[in-house]
Amino acid sequence: MFERFSRSWGLVKASGAVLSANKRLMLFPVLSSISTLIVAASFLVPAFASGMLTHMDRGHMTPAMAAWLFVFYIVQYFIVIFFNSALIGAALMHLRGESPTLGDGFRIATSKLPSILGYAVISATVGMVLRAIEERAGFIGRWIVALLGVAWTLATFMVVPVLVSQDIGPFDAVKHSTLLLKRTWGENLVGNAGIGLAFGLLFVGVLFAGVALLFVAISTHSAAVIGLVVALWIATLLTLAVIQGALHGIYAAAVYRYAEEGDAGVGFDKTLVADAFKIKA
């Protein structure tokens, strides 16, 4: 356990060094979050007002509702993948020793729009299929969906770096991502959730600290103090989420470089990345 935590923290520090050298990379997850919230509101508010969400929650899914949900999935996935492509494209430039700007990241993502859209459709289709399995199989279905979700996450771990680096379509990118994982590290991924583990601990710490400070603020009977504590608490959680998103993109770029070239790039220790993935005995 201690070894895994140590390696996870090492990945955070290595990714953090890259992020510290180019703090503008944090703007990509910020813009992605804002865009997804705007799109979600544009879809969900009218659906809620019309009562469609209530019918869907009760299991009354009509073909029109299914089509609406599929389009919603596609748009949301497209936005997330687009900004992630911009982030990873810029991160790959940094790992090559260049000095990328926000414009460079968006230029790279824009040049891959057809592939990004195709991958969004694939992801939305997988999401709809998993949702259908979960709804029809009950408790067992949730376990099946969880396992399939993990398998899909592993298979597509390097799809976005592949898309932004190579002139191939989304289906070939998924195949190539799977091939890279099998060829380089085998099946037993140890460090894929390293950054998630480290930030999970940070989130838990912030949550507990926030609750403690909130009790102290309530004891002051001051609405201003309570509001300030809540605002700082939320701001800290959002900041951690943004940093985690940026670090995840940087790490994905470094892993891709290591898989293709045997060198993770500027700011990353080759041994650190290699140790994050162990070949199963």
Describe the 3D structure.
By secondary structure, the protein is an all-alpha fold. It has one domain. The protein has 11 helices and no strands. It has helices spanning 2-21, 27-50, 52-57, 63-95, 102-111, 113-155, 159-165, 170-184, 194-219, 223-261, 270-275. α4 crosses α7. The radius of gyration is 21 Å and the shape is globular. It starts with a helix and ends in a 6-residue tail after the last helix.
The tally of structural domains comes to: 1
Which structural class should the secondary elements be placed in?
Answer: mainly alpha
Q: Calculate the mean pLDDT score and round it.
A: 83
Order of helices and strands: HHHHHHHHHHH
Return Rg in Å.
Answer: 21 Å
Gap from first CA to last CA? 19 Å
Tell me roughly what share of residues is in helical segments.
over 70%
Beta-strand share of residues: under 5%
Low-confidence stretches: none
Based on Cα principal axes, name the global outline: globular
Task: Please provide the count of β strands.
Answer: 0
Number of helices: 11
Main sheet specs: none
Keywords:
281 residues; mainly alpha; 11 helices
